[in-house]
Amino acid sequence: MSFDNFTLWQPRFNDSVSSTRIAFGVPAVALFLVLFTYLRGLYRVYLHPLSDFPGPKEAAKSRNWLYLQTLKPYPEDVYDELHDHYGAKAIRIAPNELHISDPHLYKVIYKQSNPFPKEKAFYAGFNVPPPGLFSATDEAKHRELRRHMNPMFSRSAVLKLEDLVRGRLADLENKIERLCDKQVIDFYGAFRLLTTSIIMEWCLADSGNILEEQPDGFGSQFLTAFSVGAAAAKIFQQYPLLPKISNALPFGLVKIFSPEIGSFAQLADFAKQGVYRWRDSNGSKAAVDHPVIIENMAQLSNDALVGLVLEILVAGSDTSASSMTVALFEILRNPSIEKRLVQELDAAIPDKNDLPPVQTLEKIDYLTACVKEGLRVASAVPSRLPRVVPHDSSEPFIVDEKIVPPGTIVSMSAHTIHSSVDIWGPDARLFNPDRWLVPEAKGLDQYQVHFSKGARMCIGQNLVPIEMLVALASILRRYKITFPSGFLPPRRVDNFTIELERGLPLKVSPRA
């Protein structure tokens, strides 16, 4: 049988009818979208359950307004201005989100028992494999992970890291002395290398010799990935499909399309390589004289362990470094504070090459006060931390005499608490160590929220003060440090953690 005379069936279209449908269909869809957006905006501004709370109309209409604020150098300044402008402790910064400035409500939102749950979309934006520690939104899984990790981060366990801290600080000081005659020393970069090398060794028993990655400088590809990669979280929070897409694509392709997301993937790849090296060694103990975190978390899957290491590397390096840098800058720009601190260090440390143990350094009251004040003023994680008003609360959540509906996202920040004149007085934004040396200072500790508060408080709360005590005591005892000509103060940029644009370049010379 021959098919030569058969013609395959093909659908036939009336070209004029199709063109007409397209001509009317496209504008109709566009008109529908415009009308929908307009009506949705009207509803959100005037009829939404949060319509009684003040704020910019654009913020009420769409989350785009909030996203644009996160791209500014320091969004918390914008929210401060709005609180002042409206005279309100709760302002609307998104269709379903309020920013809160009442310091007394911090303990309600971030309380120890049954805190408000984390807002899932915000923390998913960090794109860390579950269960995570900081990014976990499942409270039961977080409690279980925290239960395993708490012993490693206790004060007694962290004190076992003192030799590690001193060793890496000695390496840094050797580099400073090698370079200080030739150039100014960028202490922000130096402190970032110091804290990153410490946390890398604690996590993975390997710092990758990051302190000498640039023999004549204080930069690192790893630190660049920190800075650029953090911007990816803001993108992911606004566009929640992007993490899934980027995770499915080859690393090289992602980096071409978005350097920010590519750098984020680079961080994850570093953590993955460290975990796999340890797994390949069959979990053998590292040849180091300090605890190693991954050796105590072998029960986790590889992906979960990578996510955990990634979180600890980021959280345990930049926050410490920025706090150290801000403290050193504030000490140096206040000559009376510098003079008093150096005098106390000279008296307590007769030999600059023989630094006392941490527990002895803690007894130098003015040093401890400078560390506390540095942590407060730095507010190393200044960003808002969104939570959700629970539906099963025994009593309503009230701000400005208004009930906040369950399901509403509410957020506060360390910046808000640390700059509150109601707590710290009229000099709240000034560096004043003396505030910690008066009898009533004990009541101020409850308002130190640089590590947050409650059940989700930063697990590294015991390490950072020790790093700061040791580093500030040693550096100010060993060196005379001054501002170079043409010095410009660091510019604070909120990249979830604080980054200090321009760094902290200083002239250094050894003291007798």
UniProtKB/TrEMBL annotation:
<keyword id="KW-0349">Heme</keyword>
<dbReference type="Pfam" id="PF00067">
    <property type="entry name" value="p450"/>
</dbReference>
<feature type="binding site" description="axial binding residue">
    <location>
        <position position="458"/>
    </location>
    <ligand>
        <name>heme</name>
    </ligand>
</feature>
<keyword id="KW-0503">Monooxygenase</keyword>
<keyword id="KW-0560">Oxidoreductase</keyword>
<feature type="transmembrane region" description="Helical">
    <location>
        <begin position="20"/>
        <end position="39"/>
    </location>
</feature>
<dbReference type="InterPro" id="IPR036396">
    <property type="entry name" value="Cyt_P450_sf"/>
</dbReference>
<comment type="similarity">
    <text>Belongs to the cytochrome P450 family.</text>
</comment>
<dbReference type="GO" id="GO:0020037">
    <property type="term" value="F:heme binding"/>
</dbReference>
<keyword id="KW-1133">Transmembrane helix</keyword>
<dbReference type="GO" id="GO:0016705">
    <property type="term" value="F:oxidoreductase activity, acting on paired donors, with incorporation or reduction of molecular oxygen"/>
</dbReference>
<dbReference type="InterPro" id="IPR050121">
    <property type="entry name" value="Cytochrome_P450_monoxygenase"/>
</dbReference>
<dbReference type="GO" id="GO:0004497">
    <property type="term" value="F:monooxygenase activity"/>
</dbReference>
<keyword id="KW-0472">Membrane</keyword>
<dbReference type="InterPro" id="IPR001128">
    <property type="entry name" value="Cyt_P450"/>
</dbReference>
<keyword id="KW-0812">Transmembrane</keyword>
<dbReference type="GO" id="GO:0005506">
    <property type="term" value="F:iron ion binding"/>
</dbReference>
<keyword id="KW-0408">Iron</keyword>
<protein>
    <recommendedName>
        <fullName>Cytochrome P450</fullName>
    </recommendedName>
</protein>
<dbReference type="InterPro" id="IPR002401">
    <property type="entry name" value="Cyt_P450_E_grp-I"/>
</dbReference>
<dbReference type="InterPro" id="IPR017972">
    <property type="entry name" value="Cyt_P450_CS"/>
</dbReference>
<keyword id="KW-0479">Metal-binding</keyword>
